[in-house]
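On clarity, I found the account of how folds are encoded harder to follow than it need be. For illustration, here is how one protein appears when written out as sequence plus C-alpha cells.
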Amino acid sequence: MGMMSEDHELVADRPDQPALPVKGCVDGGLRLIAADPVLERLQSEAGARLGARLAIAPLADVVRLARELSMPVTREARVADANHRYDILVTAAPEGEVVRLTISDWRVADTRQVIEEAPETLDDTLASPLGQIIDAAEGISAQADGPLQDTYADYANDIAAAGRHLLSVIHSMSEQVSGRSSEEIDLGELAKEAAQMVEGAAKERNVSIKVNSFGAPGMALGQRGAVLQVLVNILGNAVRHSPEGGRVNIDFQSGNGIIETKVRDSGPGIAPQDRLRIFEAYERAHDADDGGKGLGLAISRRLARGMGGDVLLGEQPEQGACFRLRLPAA
C-alpha cells in the first residue's frame, strides 16, 4: 500500500527531483511497510515490492544503526534508479516497533565526481557486506528456517549484536572525515529540525523542548548532516535523562569567531567523576540502564572536531546538565 500525501509526487518540470520530504516506514522485520511513490519506486527497482524487506542497502544500513543506537540517525547516502544516481540526506527515527524514514535532501550525483572519486570508502567497502552478515545472523537467531539448538541461536544473536556495534563505528569513522567541504549552516533552523526529530520521544516522557531563537546566532561553518546528527544525539540524551514533565532548553551564543549551541536539561546532571568518561565510546553517566548505548556523545565529539569545532560539557546548572556544541562562525 502507498503512503503519505499527493504532495510528494515527482515535480513535472524536474523529473529527477522529487518534492521533499520523501517519507517511508520500516517495521521490526526490516520490511518497508509504507512509502511515498518515489521511495516505493526505488524499492521496486532494487528488486523488492512494498511490504517486503527494505532492498535499498544504504537506507537499510541507516535503519539498522538507528535501531542499535535507539535514537534518530541522519546520514548522507547514495541511491540509484535505472537512470541516475542520487545523493540524499536521510533520517531514520525509531518509534516503538517501527522506524520512520525522512529524506530531506535529494540531488542528482555529479557523474564526473563518481568516476573520479577515490577508491571506495570504508562505508562502501564494509557496510553492505556487514549488513548481510547481520541479516543472516538475525535470521538464524529468530530460527526463521526452522528450529535449532538454543546455544546456536545465542551465538547468532551475539554475532548480530557485534555486527551492529561495528557498523555504528564504521559510520562514525567515515561519515565526515571523507574530505567533504564545509558550508554555511543556520544553527537555529537545524536546532528546530533536530527538536522535531526527537519530538516523539519527548512526548512519551512529557518533556518540553524550547528553542530560544531570539538573538539569532548567525551562520556557522560545518556539514549539515553531521551537525544535525550531533544535535539529535545531544537532544536525545537530554530527553532521555529528563524526568517526567521535565524541560530541555536550547540557547545560542557567539563571539571570538565561534558560535555555540547550548542544550540544557532538567535531569540528575553529570557527576564530577563522569565528566570525562562520558565522551568515551560505550560509557554512560552513572552507568544508567536508560536504553542508551554509550555511543552518542563519542560520535558527536568526533563529528564536531572533524568540522573544526567540539562538543563540551558546560557549567553545571542548578539542576540537570548542559552540553555545548561549538562551531566556527561563517
